[in-house]
Amino acid sequence: MLTAVLWGLAGGSSLVAGALLSFFVPVKKNIVALIMALGAVVLPSLGSGRLTLQD
Q: pTM, whole model, 2 decimals?
């Protein structure tokens, strides 16, 4: 259970760090769109792959 808590903290802290960084570092809209598109493709594909591999 401690491992899950540590992974949760790592994920949450990276989200907060990214949000704070976005206030100080200008990022082009093209880069933001690329990152969001990548996330929109990767997350569903991982979920469907995991569902198909279940016994």
A: 0.51
